[in-house]
Amino acid sequence: MRLVVLGGGESGVGTAILGKKKGYDVFISDFGKIKNNYKEVLALNKLDWEEEKHTEELILNADVVMKSPGIPDKSPIVKAIKKKGIPVISEIEFANQFLEVDTIGITGSNGKTTTTMLTHHLLKQGGLNVGLAGNIGKSFAWQVAENKHEGYVLELSSFQLDGVEKYRPHIAVITNISPDHLDRYEYKYELYIAAKFRITMNQTENDFLIYDADDAAISEWMENNTIKAQKIPFSLTKEVENGVYLKDDTIISNINKDEFTMSINDLSLEGKHNVKNAMAATAVAQLMRIRKETIRESLSNFQGVEHRLEPVLKIQNVQYINDSKATNINSTFYALDSMKTPTVWIVGGVDKGNDYSELMPLVREKVKAIVCLGVDNRKIIDAFENVVDVMVETTSMQEAVKVAQKLAEKGDTVLLSPACASFDLFENYEERGKQFKNAVQNL
């Protein structure tokens, strides 16, 4: 069996290692450059690869192709592979066939990284040997090859779910759905929603789907489609049966007729969206029979996620906050919503079909100045030039941070919350966040 891996990053290299271990003839092809640390791993494992090109003769003889999530379906090589009828799957689907343990799959437009890390933290504190993978950390396939875990918590993007056929998580979580990545879904919101719900398509009556019962897109989809899994809703606005809800600032979970309560004031993470993330993680922990005392402790000592509303420094009484992970409007909505002081907002990057009007009330109320950081800022300027007094365009992180420092006064906040992808000026949102932190530390 010949396995061709498109993309020589974390998921690609992990898939190649697992493929080789399982007896496949493996070839890796990357249209860009493969990083040196990955080349060393490929050499150690005696794997064949190419970079900066896709050689059709070496690819179109595959029995199966694993495509990294960053490569769009419309790229010429993917079209050629599909035309030949060769199956194209994701790392999740490939690794899943060699798995004999349960997974917990977590998706959503926002909150999925925090919810995944928080869930993993709760289960580990509860004594379970679970791996953390998917859209985060070390490759899932790589971990399956090493075979050290008794279960996995997976953060799953819509791109990863596009490439699954048989994958079935024992517990699935959908944190929320809002328009994102529409450039990859023909600008049709319903296609993106359907991609998210692929997480539950293979689930049975013995599995569980945890979801936000306040979310309009989720509710509408569930009304019009059949779901076999047992439904576990969570809500901030209404009492739900066999789920988790909020009453008088207390989280109440009544899953398996076993009530767990905790005041939201004891959560380590702030903000309404984090109450929801905590509810979803609590639901998983209760299904996995983690002790209530452990759940309570874990929710109060969790440290949060880098690049997600991460306080960096206070300089001359101005707080700098790194929210580089906000790559869509909904994420930035949460960030602006949680600002308590006048805010200088650094925004911009590659727009994925954003509608900035949703942010208008928050920008009017909270934002005193906007610093654009992107190659093309036209849409942001058109949206907000009549709403804020000061708008400045910048082309590097250092420049953006210096301008923001000049615009900020004592008691203000400087918030990097781009609402866009980072690929025009940065390698990824992590690099963007690191550059922001470095620039702030050098002020």
Automatic annotation (TrEMBL):
InterPro entries: Mur-like_cat_sf, Mur_ligase_C, Mur_ligase_C_dom_sf, Mur_ligase_cen, MurD. It catalyses: UDP-N-acetyl-alpha-D-muramoyl-L-alanine + D-glutamate + ATP = UDP-N-acetyl-alpha-D-muramoyl-L-alanyl-D-glutamate + ADP + phosphate + H(+). Residues 106-285 form the Mur ligase central domain. It is an enzyme of class 6 (ligase). Its EC number is 6.3.2.9. Cell wall formation. Catalyzes the addition of glutamate to the nucleotide precursor UDP-N-acetylmuramoyl-L-alanine (UMA). This is UDP-N-acetylmuramoylalanine--D-glutamate ligase. It comes from Flavobacterium suzhouense. The lineage of its organism: Bacteria, Pseudomonadati, Bacteroidota, Flavobacteriia, Flavobacteriales.
